[in-house]
Amino acid sequence: PSSNEVVLDIAVTGACTQPPDPPSGLASQVSGRTVTLSWQLSTIGAIPAGLHLVAGTAPGSSNLGTIPLAATATGFSIAVPPGTYYVRVATVNSCGVSAFSNEVQLTVS
What we know:
By secondary structure, the protein is mainly beta. The protein is built from no helices and 8 strands.
């Protein structure tokens, strides 16, 4: 079945000069089949216009997809099927994509 619909508002507030700094301190918690992620955003440097949460089945991979998130998001929760997942987060603006945060490995039983 289709997922829920998401509306993204993108505001341009001026020309950027560089991609934003990456999120830091990515942490995870697994409770049953619900995964909760949290991270911190930099308060210096370029302003992000959004975030990309990237998930894969191997370190550094993105084969499960990329979820766009609001620029101010500092957490995300989702129910997932059993498996092992590797997740990381990057910030984006009109100048590009930041480096990725640290990657966390999640095992859901």
